[in-house]
Design brief:
Oligomer: single chain
CATH architecture of the largest domain: 3-Layer(aba) Sandwich
Strand content: 15-25%
Number of domains: 2
Helix content: 25-40%
Radius of gyration: 34 Å
Largest sheet: 8 strands, mixed
CATH class of the largest domain: Alpha Beta
Strand order of the largest sheet: 8-7-9-10-22-21-18-15
Number of helices: 13
CATH topology of the largest domain: Rossmann fold
Length: 504
């Protein structure tokens, strides 16, 4: 009996013992624990690195959500934390909804790349009316408009609205269409500029020769253009050259905008001495006007010609009528002022020819089309009988503006000369906002270059595009059968492969 019992209790060959089973379970537990620890270590490591080295890839065609290098460099110059408060309201229009989404994504980019310098506070207006009222008093504002954005850094404050961040595309008869371009980065970066500027930019507009006045809200005034400049934290003053003994030392740039009467010799001397000492000037001389500056400009490598440019190929409607003297130009020279304007139109409601006679000093900025000409017969022009005269008129692409750089005694003077001042007058800006042109980039970029703020010229608007996959009936049939049959088949094949591997 004992022998039989012993034979029964004896382990059979080839079968695992109880101890072996316990060891196997222990090994399995250890393996799982090690894998969990490795996974946790990887997770912790990834989070550690991501907190210090953030990176994400912008897959959009136009890099809609990527900051320019210039914007990133500007953010680094912030001395104090910057908080951006948004007061967005639910829009009724899908296009505005898309702009809000793009702006929120852009704000996230600013916050991420600031390294803790920029914070975004999103205030839901409908849900937090008390908060809106508190912030309104704190910021000393009469009101906070829907879709306002308020930037605060220390004692500095800048207000912008969502409407400033996009351009609307208009039809041939002025009817509004979709969103043409997103200017969110340009708007925010310009606003942030006000937080980092150590020196105030002051522009002096000349007076005394029937130039446009910055406070004049009439069609001939410059009040709308002044608003553009003030949004970039630029202070504007007026200077009567007849009463001045020198150009003020705090003048960042002198603006001579369409004088109707000749500028005298003493006044020209003031401007000349100012430029020779490193001064900056924007001079716009309208056709048919004698500004008395021809000889002065020649010394700076610039020639202005009598007459008016006629461009039948590029003439545009202005103030409800088609005028052959109102032309559009998209042919630009190689210069920081115009390099980022390619693909955009500059509208000049009547311009004269402005040529470079010294390529080492003066760089051409923009031209009319090859079918244009410089009309010099003003009698025929006045009778609306302008036509090309091969004996007296100049035909071909005509230059309409130049940028001048001249160094003397290590001092660099800069000057921009344009053949038209109407482009910045209220009647032009207000009318073109209805036609879809809206902005006056040529003049604004000229001032940015003159005042050494080329960084803001390089911030381009993002073109908004709707990209769709066009599905033909054949492609739709393929996708239907692929999703119905192929996807389950691939899943089944993968499952069978795993089962076969485990059986081995």
């Amino acid at each position: 009996m004992e022998n039989n019992n012993q034979s029964v209790n004896k382990p059979q060959e080839g079968l695992p013992t109880e101890g072996w089973g316990r060891k196997q379970k222990a090994l399995t537990f250890v393996n799982v624990a090690v894998m969990v620890l490795i996974a946790l270590a990887i997770l912790v490591g990834v989070n550690y690195v991501s907190n210090r080295q953030f990176y994400r890839y912008d897959c959009t065609f136009n890099k809609e959500y990527s900051l320019s290098d210039k914007s990133k460099e500007l953010i680094k110059q912030l001395k104090e934390p910057l908080t951006i408060y948004t007061f967005f309201v639910p829009p009724q229009d899908q296009a505005i909804f898309d702009i809000q989404r793009m702006m929120n994504d852009l704000l996230e980019e600013y916050q991420i790349y600031s390294g803790g310098k920029i914070f975004v506070e999103k205030i839901t207006v409908a849900a937090n009316p008390e908060m809106v009222e508190v912030l309104q008093k704190k910021f000393k504002l009469e009101t906070i408009a829907p879709n306002d954005m308020i930037l605060r850094s220390g004692d500095n404050q800048k207000n912008v609205n969502l409407v400033e961040t996009y351009e609307v595309e208009y039809g041939p008869y002025g009817q509004p269409g979709g969103i043409k371009a997103f200017r969110g980065e340009e708007t925010l970066t310009s606003a942030i500029m006000t937080m980092v500027k150590t020196q105030k930019t002051i522009l002096y507009f000349t007076a005394g020769h029937n130039e446009g006045e910055v406070k004049n809200q009439s069609p001939e005034g410059l009040s709308t253009f002044a608003n553009y400049l003030q949004r970039e934290n630029i202070e504007i003053k007026q200077l009567n050259l007849l009463e001045a003994t020198e150009i003020p030392r705090d003048c960042s740039a002198l603006i001579v905008m369409g004088p109707k009467t000749p500028i005298s010799a003493p006044e020209r001397n003031l401007i000349n001495n100012y430029l020779k000492n490193g001064g900056r000037a924007l001079i716009a001389i309208d056709p048919l006007a004698d500004a008395g500056l021809a000889d002065f400009l020649t010394e700076w490598g610039v020639r202005i010609s009598d007459g008016i440019v006629i461009d039948p190929e590029r003439c545009v409607a202005f103030l409800g009528r088609k005028d052959v003297t109102c032309l559009a130009s998209d042919t630009y020279g190689n210069h920081p002022i115009t390099n980022k304007m390619r693909g955009e139109m500059s509208i000049l409601p009547g311009t004269r020819a402005v040529d470079s006679i010294s390529p080492t000093m003066a760089t051409e900025l923009l031209k009319s089309s090859g079918n244009s000409w410089l009309e010099t017969n003003m009698d025929d022009f006045a009778k609306n009988k302008a036509s090309f005269d091969k004996d007296s008129d100049r035909r071909g692409a005509i230059n309409l503006g130049v940028a001048v750089t001249k160094k003397e005694d290590d001092k660099e003077g800069r000057m921009v000369v344009l053949g038209d001042s109407d482009m910045v007058r209220n009647k032009f800006i207000d009318a073109n906002s209805m036609m879809g042109f809206g902005r006056v980039d040529l003049a604004l970029n000229s001032i940015r270059w003159l005042t050494g703020q080329e960084v803001f010229i390089s911030v381009e608007p993002k073109k908004t595009e709707s990209r769709r996959i066009e599905l033909t009936p054949g492609r739709m049939t393929f996708l239907f059968w692929f999703s119905l049959l192929m996807v389950p088949a691939i899943g089944a094949a993968f499952g069978i492969a795993v089962w076969l591997i485990r059986r081995r």
